[in-house]
């Protein structure tokens, strides 16, 4: 084998333009892909080639081509190739609020183990897991999300019952945090904006949106920072514009959320795609 042949294929990630709370990617990795991290969205995907391995809920999982991955919001996980050949996959990241628009205030569906072979989930993800080069119309995406929400609820075995939590107050808190993500927000402000005491509100927020109010606030800042970085801003300027105290503050949260430093994330996001 020549030195040229021995060189591994470069890792790459390609993204579709996000639409209304949904991010779509297709990626290839060999070896270690992501360190342990967690984000406040559902990560729902399909392995296209190779073995996609990851630690999830105290166990090692292995997804094979054609299987559906469903990682619950705020659950820690990593990612690596299960073989030397690497792995390729597509993934969508869906804000829990979009599923709540369909489910109307029930607890978020949970798929045990993070991997499913259920035909209902495969069919419900077909539209959203098309090639990222295929644009989705807003109504097409909306219909697909509704179908996916119902499929998740059915496959998880979730009974269609409302929880005892206050969904309208949790929704008001989410809207307030979304609008104020560029600055420090206190629990007193959230109490005033929602009319709920802080502890009940935090409990309900996690039930309906899968994470805490502070984690939701940080994720919105990271969304802004990534967008600015892709448009060419320096890491320091992106951190300041997104509402972080400084670049190191952003980097700590970025690594915990995406499993990469900002610099590494930019590197693989701009790598050439190879078949």
Quick overview:
The protein has 275 residues and is α+β, with helices and mostly antiparallel strands. The chain is built from 11 helices and 10 strands. Residues 171-268 form the HTH araC/xylS-type domain.
Task: Describe the fold and architecture.
This protein has 275 residues and is α+β, with helices and mostly antiparallel strands. The protein is 43% helix and 20% strand. It is built from eleven helices and ten strands. The chain has helices at residues 3-6, 96-103, 119-125, 138-156, 167-179, 187-194, 198-209, 213-230, 235-242, 247-258, 262-269; strands spanning 12-15, 22-29, 32-37, 42-49, 52-56, 59-63, 68-71, 77-81, 87-94, 115-116. The strands form two sheets. Strands 1-2-9-4-7-10 form a six-stranded antiparallel beta sheet, with helices on both faces. The radius of gyration is 19 Å and the shape is globular.
Q: Please name the fourth-level CATH homologous superfamily of the largest domain.
A: Jelly Rolls
Count of helical regions: 11
Domain unit count: 2
The stretches of 5 or more residues where confidence is low (pLDDT under 50) are none
Sequence of strands across the biggest β-sheet: 1-2-9-4-7-10
By secondary-structure content and strand pairing, the structural class works out as alpha+beta
CATH class of the largest domain: Mainly Beta
* Gross geometry: globular
Mean pLDDT rating: 89
Indicate the proportion of strand residues: 15-25%
Q: Helices, strands, pairings?
A:
Blueprint: H1 3-6, E1 12-15, E2 22-29, E3 32-37, E4 42-49, E5 52-56, E6 59-63, E7 68-71, E8 77-81, E9 87-94, H2 96-103, E10 115-116, H3 119-125, H4 138-156, H5 167-179, H6 187-194, H7 198-209, H8 213-230, H9 235-242, H10 247-258, H11 262-269
Antiparallel strand pairs: 1-2, 2-9, 3-8, 4-7, 4-9, 5-6, 5-8, 7-10
């Amino acid at each position: 084998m020549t030195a040229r042949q021995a060189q591994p294929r470069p890792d790459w990630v390609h993204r579709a333009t996000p639409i209304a709370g949904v991010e779509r990617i297709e990626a290839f990795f060999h070896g270690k892909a992501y360190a342990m991290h967690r984000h406040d969205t559902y990560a729902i995907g399909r392995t296209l080639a190779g073995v996609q391995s990851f630690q999830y809920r105290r166990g090692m999982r292995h997804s094979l081509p054609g299987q559906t991955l469903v990682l619950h919001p705020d659950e820690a996980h990593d990612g690596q190739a299960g073989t030397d050949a690497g792995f390729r996959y597509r993934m969508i990241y869906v804000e829990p609020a979009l599923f709540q628009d369909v489910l109307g205030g029930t607890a978020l569906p949970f798929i045990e183990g993070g991997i499913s072979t259920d035909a209902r989930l495969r069919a419900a993800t077909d539209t959203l897991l098309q090639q990222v080069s295929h644009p989705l119309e807003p109504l097409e995406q909306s219909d697909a999300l509704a179908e996916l929400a119902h499929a998740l609820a059915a496959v998880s075995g979730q009974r269609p019952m409302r929880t005892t939590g206050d969904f309208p107050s949790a929704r008001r808190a989410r809207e307030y945090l979304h609008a104020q993500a560029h600055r420090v927000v206190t629990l007193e402000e959230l109490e005033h904006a929602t009319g709920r005491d802080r502890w009940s509100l935090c409990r309900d927020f996690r039930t309906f949106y899968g994470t805490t109010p502070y984690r939701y606030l940080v994720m919105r800042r990271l969304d802004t920072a990534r967008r600015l970085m892709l448009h060419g801003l320096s890491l320091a300027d992106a951190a300041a514009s997104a509402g972080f105290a400084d670049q190191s503050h952003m980097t700590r949260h970025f690594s915990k959320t995406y499993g990469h430093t900002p610099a590494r994330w930019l590197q693989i996001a701009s790598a050439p795609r190879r078949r």
